Amino acid sequence: MNQEAWKQPFFSSKMPACPLKGHWASVCLVDETGSGKAYGGLVYTIQDTTGRRYNGRLNGEGYAKVEGFYCGPVILSLDAQYSGDEEPYSKLIKRKTYPLPITELQARAEHTRFSAADGQRIEGNPAQRQADRFYQVEVRDLVRHIAHLPPFASATYHPPRHALKMMAELGFGPPQPALSGVVLFPNLHTVLEVRPLRALRPMLSTDDQFCALNLYQLALMSTLSYCDFGQQPPKPPVEHVSFPLDPSAGNLFAEKLSGFQEAWKVDRDQAQRFYPLYEEVPYSQRFEILPFDPELYPQNRPQLGEKQEHPASLHFFDDEAFGTDTQAFISHHNEVILIAVRGTASGADALRDANAHQVPFTEGVGKAHEGFYQAYRAMRDFVLYYLDQFHSGQRIVICGHSLGGAIALLLAEGLRRVTRVKYNILLYTYGAPRAADSEFTDGASALIHHRIVNHNDPVPSVPATWMNTTAKLWVPGAVTLFAAPGAGGLLFAAGLVRVGGNPYQHHGEQQHFMPIKLPDGTHSSVLWTPGCESILEAGCNRMLQLHGDMPERANLLKQLFQASQHFMTASYIPAAWATLRRWQQTVECQGPLITAREFELIDLALDTMTQQLRDKNRELERRRPPNQRDYGHAHNQALNAEVDRLRSSRRRLESLRWRRLDVRDVYGSHAHSTGLQPSVKRWLRHRENRKLAQIASIPAPLQDGAGRVQPLDIDSIV
């Protein structure tokens, strides 16, 4: 070898670079249609075996040719940072925490589209016929920092990533932290089909108005909150993280949806498929799971120990180690910040549910359920820390089921009362118990809260309006009750009855699933706003409060046996799906929200309830001792008030016979968006969603008896 050759940089200490020059390579970046126009003008860098760099721009067709480099393969990269002012890229690059290394290539790839509706790679790209080498690549193949990008998707024509690894191991080029790019072989024309950088995100309306879309979508998100976050390793991560657990919030947002894969599983035991409605968006507008890159972000470095930040610590709250066992996840995009709070899932949660003692809601007015308030206080700082970093005017959508709904209410009101920032809150809860007293409810009247209740769900009936106690007192009484009814009953009553203060009261506008039986014997429900808690309570709690008695234990046990009506996958999700499908079909056919037969069934149930209340009133009159005119007066007032409320509810029911829905009732703020119809079309491709009947029945559960509705009856309510 001549002396000049030895002067060239080395692959390694044992292998000098080849001194021969005069080789060439050409490359063209194209989309899935074979056009390179989307990538025209991009700045590229090609590095040869000596480490020499050749910089240039792709022409208008995405083509470039480099000549005269040293013998051997070269590496192509397109790592130039985005320099435009288009949102959201400019904001994401400049944000104060976790600024993203967005490249010009990424921005271009986000504006291309898939040829196949499901995002799968297609065969037979027209540009393949003009290529010596053809590769299906992704943005992460061509840039250095990849932690914020989606994982690799399946492809038939992989780029030679082993060649890149081999060259890096040989000491290719000058010393550098990382070698990135696609290997091009000399004297060949290479075509790179760049996968569109698109994502799916669950559609959520930002309107105050209740809509069927949010009813269904947030039921799924509330259920997902019961899953672990799914990060591996959970902590402390060293170099990178992944999210293999399916279902999990991490897997859904960081793996599946970012990779344009539709997902339907939100519960580990779920067998029935309930697909969210997804909209296709540029990747940067997805629900974000923040990147983990210790090289870019000092807060990600493992040396920080317990203070190290990683996706699980930022997006997932799990207070199991500190006693409340509260769990929630949070994510965001440019329009919405989503917070989902888990319901009861452990013994600690159950004890928290039972702690009905009222304590001051220090962030506002009134008093709150102590157990729920402690859980809210445990997660408050976690949420505020996230909002301080990533809130930029988005609508904050909060949801939760059961205990999670109660905590979500306190969280929503606490955030609404933050003075330094104006948070715009929208709250949906499912089967939530009462969380606070009447003073709190009045003070939180400005909070938009849609409270969804399944008719035979026992949980919204507690705590009763007359409860104010700790579990230490009433739990032993409840246990003793079955062994020694007399003594146990006294202890139970002593523990439950509120002395002084304001009664517990529900917050928000109730959306009530009224069960009906269709002519073919299947079950469905009608969602309406009765405006009367008699529908939920059947007048029982108010009457018992004033009478100073306790509910019959048989009724409580009956409710517990109907507890499937409280479950999300067995009850709330199917009912929400049926409502969405019903409302879609109602808009399509321009029919009424409720049919004549449905009105007849529900009206009969309301009439039966009214008669039961009147019968109870007459019974109290018969019990009135002689010469005691005031006896039972309070009872009569309460029961008559309930009868009046039921009469008002019937008038609301009557109005449903003539109400016509519009698209906004179904889809909220998405009613007139250009992406609505493609999203609905994608959703309807799944056979589970193609129901042709005008009245959509609730899908039958796979488990026998689960999710079965019960008739409306005062005796079915505690």
Explain what this protein looks like in three dimensions:
Helices cover 33% and strands 16% of the residues. The protein has 718 residues and is α/β, with parallel strands linked by helices. The protein folds into two domains: 20-195, no CATH class; 202-466 and 503-623 and 632-716, no CATH class. The strands form six sheets. The protein has an eight-stranded mixed beta sheet with strand order 11-12-13-16-17-19-21-22, sandwiched between helices. Strands 4-1-8-6 form a four-stranded mixed beta sheet. It has a four-stranded antiparallel beta sheet with strand order 3-2-5-7. α19 runs antiparallel to α20. The protein is elongated, with a radius of gyration of 31 Å.
SSE topology sketch:
Layout lengths: L2 H4 L16 E8 L12 E5 L5 E5 L5 E7 L4 E4 L11 H6 L9 H7 L22 E5 L1 H4 L18 H9 L12 E3 L4 E6 L3 E5 L9 H13 L24 H8 L21 E5 L28 H5 E3 L8 E6 L3 E6 L5 H8 L3 E3 L6 E3 H21 L4 E7 L1 H14 L7 E7 L5 E2 H6 L4 E7 L16 H13 L1 H12 L7 E2 L3 E9 L5 E6 L5 H4 L2 H8 L5 H9 L6 H22 L6 H28 L9 H24 L6 H5 L8 H9 L34
Parallel strand pairs: 1-8, 6-8, 13-16, 16-17, 17-19, 19-21
Antiparallel strand pairs: 1-4, 2-3, 2-5, 5-7, 9-10, 11-12, 12-13, 14-15, 18-20, 21-22
Helix pairs in contact: 6-18, 9-10, 10-11, 13-14, 16-20, 19-20
